[in-house]
Amino acid sequence: MLTRQVHCREMMRLSEPTSLSSTSDALASRVRLAAAAYLGRFKGSSREHTESDLRCYLTWCAERGIDPLAVRRADLELYIRWMQELRRFRPSTVSRRFSVVAGFCRTCVLDGVLEHSPAEHVRRPSVPPESPTLGFTPPAVRGHADRCA
Question: What is the pTM of this model?
Answer without folding.
Answer: 0.72
